[in-house]
Amino acid sequence: MSRLRIAVIGGGANSEHDVSVASAASVTAALDPSRYEVLCLTIGRDGVWWDAAGSAVGLGEVVSLLQGCAVVFPAVHGPRGEDGTLAALLDLAGVPYVGSGVRAGALGMDKWTTKLVAEAVGVRTAPGLLVTHTRSIPTDIALPVVVKPVAAGSSHGVTRVDRQDRLPDAIGAALALDDRALVESYISGREIDIAVLACADGRRIVSAPLEIVVADGLFDTARKYDGTADFRVPARLTPDEQTLLEQAALAIFDALGCAGAARIDFFLTDAGLVLNEVNTMPGMTAQSQVPRMFAARGLTYPELLDELVRAAMTAA
């Protein structure tokens, strides 16, 4: 039986470059070599594409290489990747790919738009406002707040602000990564993540929930990767909490039009669920949250990757 030729893309011209490289390397290593022939491509921090031999590849040649594959696994997180950019390129090239399409990627990456969509389908979000370079910094917002770029990942540029005099610097840090910043009321509650997988046969599998426990309650960039955060899978929830979490995740997954696997992050408060954010191309190393969450449901990492590839080919 001939092997399926699959392109795995990592890297990216954004602040999540290193995470994407790790995801792509892990995906490549986990794909069964008896079933898959893998073409590895990496996008540099400067946007230049590189092949596995370390040679720069022009965009025209990249498209030709991708068109020679049966399916593409774009393991690129963040702007100019997860935000629909790569999906648009692959759509134009006519190549099936793993994960969400242009619309879902763009909507899911935009935290402000995601809030509007969530509220429209009855999922509560934190009170917040949008700030740009041309809009005055608010002086009457109730503290504490969390300031974040509208479209960035891995918690880059995210700051908790407890004093008014620190708000300008926090907004400046967010606007250094994006032209819009989101200022949201700080939500006190348990941070619970859950993922949804759209399968090739039309089923949707909801992962086990994962709880993130950190010392001071803010899961920032450092704590994502320094090993100090405590990931508890499955999170301890009541049956009612579990049901509400799954229903909210599916509602957002469907409203955004997601495909493949998406992670939806919530806060569980005394008043119920509050959406935090959506990741349409979440971390994909074997130890990343989503593979661990599905493993707790009995779906191994290689099985998860196989299902993602099958779903991409079925949708083509």
UniProtKB/TrEMBL annotation:
InterPro entries: ATP-grasp, ATP_grasp_subdomain_1, D-Ala_lig_Van_CS, D_ala_D_ala, Dala_Dala_lig_C, Dala_Dala_lig_N, PreATP-grasp_dom_sf. Pathway: Cell wall biogenesis; peptidoglycan biosynthesis. GO terms for molecular function: D-alanine-D-alanine ligase activity. PROSITE patterns: ATP_GRASP, DALA_DALA_LIGASE_1, DALA_DALA_LIGASE_2. It is found in: Cytoplasm. Residues 115-310 form the ATP-grasp domain. Keywords: ATP-binding, Cell shape, Cell wall biogenesis/degradation, Cytoplasm, Ligase, Magnesium, Manganese, Metal-binding, Nucleotide-binding, Peptidoglycan synthesis. Its cofactor is Mn(2+); Mg(2+). It comes from the Bacteria. SUPFAM superfamilies: Glutathione synthetase ATP-binding domain-like, PreATP-grasp domain. Gene3D superfamilies: 3.40.50.20, ATP-grasp fold, A domain (3.30.1490.20), ATP-grasp fold, B domain (3.30.470.20). Its EC number is 6.3.2.4. The keyword Cytoplasm applies. It holds the Pfam family Dala_Dala_lig_C. It is an enzyme of class 6 (ligase). The keyword Ligase applies. Its main location: cytoplasm. It catalyses: 2 D-alanine + ATP = D-alanyl-D-alanine + ADP + phosphate + H(+). Cell wall formation. Belongs to the D-alanine--D-alanine ligase family. This is D-alanine--D-alanine ligase. The lineage of its organism: Bacteria, Bacillati, Actinomycetota, Actinomycetes, Micrococcales. The gene is ddl.
